[in-house]
Amino acid sequence: MNTCNKCIMVKYCNAVCKKIHKKKHKKECEEHVRRVVSQHNEELRIAAELHDEKLFKQPPPKEDCPICFLRLPTLNTGWNYKTCCGKAVCSGCCYAPLYNNQGNEVDNQKCPYCRAPIPESNEEIVERLQKRVEVGDPIAIYNLGIKYRDAEDGYPQDHVKALELHHRAGELGNAMAYGSIGWAYDHGEGVEVDKKKAIHCYELAAMKGDAISRYILGVNEENADNMNRALKHYMIAVTDGHAESLQEIQDLFTNGHATKEDYTKALRSYQEYLCEVKSRQRDEAAAADEENRYY
Known about the structure:
The protein contains 13 helices and 4 strands. It has helices at 15-20, 22-55, 91-95, 122-134, 138-150, 159-171, 175-187, 195-207, 211-223, 227-239, 243-254, 260-277, 280-294; strands at residues 79-82, 87-90, 98-99, 105-106. It has a two-stranded antiparallel sheet. Strands 3-4 form a two-stranded antiparallel ribbon. A hairpin with a 5-residue loop joins strand 3 (98-99) and strand 4. Helix 5 packs antiparallel against helix 6 (159-171), helix 7 (175-187) runs antiparallel to helix 8 (195-207) and helix 8 (195-207) packs across helix 9.
């Protein structure tokens, strides 16, 4: 009780001594507090700079398709996860016909990577998924969390279980899992709305390469009138083929918040991404999928 309340550096024998020494100690006390506050602000500034350095670092690209060795598309519609072998195979290789060692076309109702038969029932799909979860496959764990979240394939809706699985998948390196957790806190799906936690999870997902989470961060920064930070997020998302981010950069350019060089760079990055993921088989698969949707 007989310590200086401001600097907490000087102690007195009693309240009377404290009161008598107050005038003499005042200048030294204020200087000490100023130094402490200045040091604290500097530490916060350095921490923010280090955080931004990690946040705005270009994440590694998605892995290549294990069959054609072309970069996997960013969008989930461009690749398929195989519960038989745990491989992410591009839609082109899934659509392409299979051939045996003699070059003859064979039944393509098999996994293009491990040649396991395609499951014929939901029960078989669930059984294979559970096996992949048991061996710690992050994509399988994430997918199982989605099934609990959306009550798919006979699973009861359980947001707590979904979050638990997504946390586990995120710790194993799955970027989409952190994005799903961020969405849950952002919109109150199974948890109370917590914008700070949502932003934290979106940032974790973005740093691991989730373009959608990166786009959401850009939108949040734009809504907060932080146009430079928004532009940085959109530019990174564009390199991963996120078309909406390219549109946002165009809008920023139109409204004077981005330069012509920024927009040109974004267009070039997006075109480079398209060239990296393009193949004849993937185009055929996309055309066939679009035809099936139409009819």
